[in-house]
Write a structure and sequence with these properties.
46% of the residues lie in helices and 6% in strands. The protein has one domain (3-64). The protein has a two-stranded antiparallel sheet with strand order 1-2. By secondary structure, it is mainly α.
């Protein structure tokens, strides 16, 4: 799976969370998935929770907890 594939899956999950009412926010124009600097932080990372936090009026952690973990 490529970073672009992961970004598409994350976008679908965020869209579903917004549509279901679990979160009230605008879908970001771009969802970036990249490799973290340190391997111990995982294979990939994204800042989508931070992108959504402002429009949702929530902390980034609360946004991240709005949909199931994959």
């Amino acid at each position: 799976m490529t970073p672009a594939d992961l970004a598409a899956v994350i976008s679908d999950g965020v869209h579903a969370a917004i549509q279901s009412g679990r979160i009230s926010a605008e879908l970001p124009e771009e969802i970036r998935v990249e490799r973290p600097r340190h391997r111990r932080h995982g294979d990939y990372s994204t800042n989508v929770a931070m992108q959504l936090a402002t429009s949702a009026g929530l902390a980034a952690r609360a946004v991240a907890e709005c949909w199931p973990r994959w």
